[in-house]
Amino acid sequence: MKDKEYLIAFNKFLKSMKEKDDTLADDAYECITDLCDVMKIGRIEVSFFDTPSDEYIENNKTKVFYDIGNYDETIYIIRRNNTVDDRTVVYKAWIRESEAAWDDIEKERVNIILDTLFVFNSRSRFIQLADKLLYFDYDMDTYNHKYYMRYLNKLIAKSEISQYTAIYFNLKKFSVVNQQIGRKNGTKVMHSFINTIVSELESGEILARIGGDNFTLIVKKGNQNKILNILNGIGIFMGGSDSERVFVSANAGIYEIPDNSVSSASDVMDRISVALHIARQSDKLDFVYFDDKMLEAKKKANAISAYFPTALKNREFLVYYQPKVTLDGYKLAGAEALCRWKHDGQLIPPFEFISVLERSMDICKLDFYMLDRVCSHLRKWLDEGKKVVRISVNLSRRHLSDMDLTKHILEIIDSHNVPHELIELELTETITDYNFQKLTDTITSLQENGLYASVDDFGVGYSSINLIKEVPWNVLKIDKSLLPSGNGEDKYQNKVMLKYVVAMAQAIGLECVAEGVETPEQIEILRDNCCDFVQGYIFDKPMPVEEFEKRLDNYKYTI
Ligand code: C2E
Ligand code: CA
Ligand code: CA
Q: Is 198 close to ligand 1, i.e. is its CB under 6 Å away?
């Protein structure tokens, strides 16, 4: 008996099996070859049985582990073991053809080899199970975020990442789908949509669920269009006898990875996240392709958010007033308070920071700050005996989640002892408002406290005349996009629209303010249609408080 050779071969077998993740894979073959040579083994086979059983039934899953081709069918050793999931695994080794039968010590050694194989196989099965628990989303039968990141890092390490496109997608309006067909059916539809995508994936491509209706993909560049076509929208059957289909589509952020210089999975994730964010905000684009400028914009946005508390504390935000003027006699009738940020000697316009602040509740702090400044100005003017006008302050829709919004607003106004009727609050309204009841309640309670409420930006996006009727607004602010301008067909259509919008507003008792009025011709059209007030560059641009104070002293406008 060649003890030393056996020990060397066994040691080599142990060492190399330890390095394998999947000990049932074909590459385990080479780990055991030397040992099989020493032990005269011609074939090793491993078979799994779905039930715990001692019987060697045919109906099983068999994997050949080692096979040199010629073995003696009559001489073999069998080891049976129970697996953790209550199955039976059978290891069978045959002796090589024309070799003398194993003696007792040799038999014992073959048994040890077969048991060792079992231990390795069990270990790798455990690793696979743990991986699945750690890296799998059981609701959707897909990988999870952790796995996605690990997989990207592997592709980066192998310098293969540039062959791929990363996609981050969010199902469009899936909460509406859930509302329409119920959560349970909604989940089924989501599952089926995801399966459709997965069935189109090629080897090396994966889909992962990040959470809720957010998913990521990594696909080969050549396959990306096929996948994007599905994300663009398909009809999904609701299942069962129901032949009704639901249309499911997605917003997506797409990063066609240009080279292998990306340093980590989180770099990829950052890029698809900003692109998706832009896609979700956009009315026009469902898919947005990442480009480097987006990260710059994100950096800038982060800097604004980080600096905001300091800016607020330092009172860097200024109130600019833009007068509202009567069409009848061109008299000052009110003003809108608009925010300007004075930072490092520069005046920053709202479009550079409002949308950033709107991503968090910071915007509410700014709005309350503006209201507070406006009230302090009003108090001062009243104390000086000036003739004051109603001032409107913008309220972001974010405030609607504040259960005590009216109370918070009144606290600010009352702390300056300003009559409630001098304050108007401007809120936008959209048809996509599923928080419609909350909006109605808020406006009602503002009104019950003597405050005014206006619908801002009417005519932008999907305003609905019906919703205007349902909420007790006082004022309708017509956006400049509804004003007739230039020439051509659009101008004619806008004229007709404007006529009916103003007539409708007046019929239900709303004051009408036209915003963004720039030309005498527009003034004429508005007058023809009996609009009440105008706010626009034709009379005044937004101006600092000192300048606006002069407008309070019987200022007479002309055009
Ligand atoms: P908005 O509430 O619709 O305000 C009217 C915007 O139209 C103002 O822009 C105003 O300067 C501009 N405008 C007025 N007349 C004309 C005109 O004749 N022609 C043109 N082209 N534009 C005109 P501004 O001040 O840049 O504000 C932009 C937006 O930023 C506002 O739109 C509002 O949505 C937001 N915003 C400004 N201040 C605040 C604030 O304190 N809180 C909140 N939540 N939003 C604010
Ligand atoms: Ca406004
Ligand atoms: Ca507006």
A: no
